Amino acid sequence: MAKPVVFIPSKIPEEEKVLRFLEAFAEVDYRDEEEMLDEDVFYDGLSRASGLMIYSRNKIRGHVLDRAPLLKAVSNIAVGYDNLDLNELTRRGILATNTPDVLTETTADLAFSLVLASGRRIAEADAFVKSGGWDGWLPSLMLGKDVHGATLGIIGYGRIGSAIARRARGFNMDILYNNLVREEKDEQELGIRFVPVEELLQNSDYVLVQVPLTPQTEKMISEKQFGLMKKDAYFINASRGGVVDEAALIRALQEKQIAGAGLDVFEHEPIDKTHPFLSMPNVVTLPHIGSATWQTRAKMAMKAAENMAAILQGRRPVNLVNPDVWTVKDGTVQ
To answer: What is the pTM of this model?
Structure first.
């Protein structure tokens, strides 16, 4: 019997280890490419695939699935999966997985670095020096905002939110949070306080949003929310760009309703080269690098491969995100 084909259209770290693992049960069609494949090349590979391993930049919608008659599994190399049309995948009986846990600490490092970079004006100061603007020490040169002892408000308190809170405790920050469920263990161990979103916005020096992009969270941070924030507060987003109304954030920055922002994600990626954020010195802009370390990306790729192996070998994957598809009869996935 021929082995199922697993299509990987993008370069992955530690590829030899991951490919060797996959080749034990599958034929692997691997493209060692940094850039997105040409559409025709992608569809050609997809047409023969039983399994697809992708990063979140690949958008899997109905018209894409129409070109994948053999597809049984999509293994996302990411914790978020808003790039997948779960309803369509479920309707077609295609299993989908993600890679949580392994990127938690790395993403929390990045998110907290945005707090530091924003408040202490790191990117702005670096550009100032490199442009030749630094002619000497001045009493008010690049004055920023303290991070230690400040109040951090975290909207969305999952694994990454908890990891960010642990870092903030090291800076003796007062931590407010809002989430769908109370995290009483962290309340006791870290001293965090659950408050309504309005109270969090009004009292935080740094407001950090860490929620997945869903129909419920889309543009949840908008004009009203920015209007409640302190004028010397900073807004931080390392989750998904779509959870923020960017037009409202631009207005809040231009009208000095808030002091600045630190952003790793944007509504449309890559960000347009004429976007207002790029000319704002009080906005730190990063190219969606929350999980971008060699170690973490390698772990993510292996976890995605393990999810793929489970599905194609008839086992329930640990990180299944559309469990309604999973039914087993006589030991095989139906």
So the answer is: 0.92
